[in-house]
Amino acid sequence: MNSALVVGGAGYIGSVTADLLAESGIDVTVVDNLDRGHIASLPGNANFVQADIRDRSHLASVMSSLRPDCVLHFAALAYVGESFERSAEYFDVNVGGTASLAAAMLEADVRNLVFSSSCTVYGVPDSLPISEGHPVKPAESPYGQTKQTCENLLSWLARTAGLKVAFLRYFNAAGAWKHLGEDHRPETHLIPLVVDAARASRSLKIFGADYPTRDGTCVRDYVHVRDLAEAHAAACRVLLESERGTTLYANLGAGQGSSILDVIRCVERLSGRTVPFDYAPRRPGDAPELVASNDHAREALSWSPMHSSLDEIVGSALDWRRRHPTGYPR
């Protein structure tokens, strides 16, 4: 692969992936509207185009000019809780934006797309760990529904228009890499919230203490953001070698679960600080336990999660927060 277009590449996972591709010698162009991305996270040797994913004509012009070998699509609204309050906007950005991007690709005859999907497409799973053969069940949130709808849209375009698409279903992205870390406004992800609670001795709210898990709190599969970036690069390589109309589905997780209390204890141990917390009622859309089977990703992508122990994830998040106490500069 010589060139890549990273859409949403100023965001958390997109910026780490853009950095990985650029440092490997690939000509990287980042497209982002900077609504939730950070200009400071862009690789210094990448090109940047400020554009909204819903602007089809602008995207088509960029792609016709650059002719990227692969497009990596990270541009989406991604807060489960917020999606209940702003459902129309989530469908507009996530589904409308994906349709716009796909149409621009077809117009420019660019065929390879790596799509950031989510384990939320599985709903509440029937069994664990979750493999790609697990049924896609009714979504538990508007956000999850947008990911299901985008997968359906792109799979039809693979069948009818010759797109080649890799659907990478993330579990819980976490951790930091080099100067790149997690800085959402507002922050909703557990590990940075626990890190900040430890640093500020501020009480953390845990939603639900009565789930059918080993300690009553939700269990999630945390995967290091650098491992996710490696999987995206591998998916690009697979698509470039595949035939028109190819679809690839891969779960990206560490293959082991950690409860909320596990994360709190890990942060306390590595930081030497206490994390105060209180319990609150369950939130809508939270499954009790989500853990990936990553066997297919290992085989299909020749990938393995090398940095996804909970200690390495938490340690990298703590270190990034020490060096960026207020996050990225605005």
CATH-assigned homologous superfamily of the largest domain: NAD(P)-binding Rossmann-like Domain
State the CATH topology of the largest domain.
Rossmann fold
CATH architecture of the largest domain: 3-Layer(aba) Sandwich
Strand content: 15-25%
Largest sheet strand order: 3-2-1-4-5-6-11
Strand count: 14
Mind describing the biggest β-sheet? Answer: 7 strands, parallel
Helix content: 25-40%
Radius of gyration: 19 Å
Task: Give the topology string: H per helix, E per strand.
Answer: EHEEHEHHEHEEHEEEHEEHEEHH
Net shape? globular
Unreliable residue runs? none
The number of helical elements comes to 10
Distance between the termini: 33 Å
Count up the domains: 2
CATH class value of the largest domain: Alpha Beta
